[in-house]
Amino acid sequence: MEKVVAGLFMTLDGVVESPGSWQEHFDEEMGEAMMEQLTSQDAVLLGRVTYQEWAPYWPTATDEPFASFINSTPKYVFSSTLDSVDEWKNSTLIKGGLAQAIAQLKQLPGKNIGTAGSPSLVSSLLEQGLLDELILLVHPVVVGHGKRLFQDGDSLKRLHLLSSKTTRTGTVILTYQPRKP
Q1: Are strands 172-178 and 159-166 parallel, antiparallel or unpaired?
Q2: N or C: which end of the chain has fewer CB within 10 A?
Q3: Are 17 and 144 in contact (CB under 8 A)?
């Protein structure tokens, strides 16, 4: 695998939780950015919460093109509490250390390793220096509550802006590369 890439929808006040409740627009430029990300990866990392929310829905969903992608792509679920991920085809449970698992996955041939949702996992990847690229689709909305990607007490992280684009509906697509210490 080439690199670990995370993409998240985010509000101006940093909320990444439940974008379906605050995402007003999904325009064609956002769709293009999401398709570019999907076609560049052939493995997906999921956290426990996202897995438990998505496993009952996506196997029978018809929301294309994401349904075909997420159902056919190998999914690696990071959890210390789940006993099984057998309910969703192509899912593998990883209970061990994040750094060791990512190192092993990066040794496999293929494209990028993406994340799907999973803000806690993305935060851990960033904190441990395991994330190669962070794509934030920042929506012009302030929610005022909800899970944020960056928490009080997180260590200082410096990022290098690779690209930025504003969509016609005002969402800003920011692509960053974390700087290695």
Answers
A1: antiparallel
A2: C
A3: no
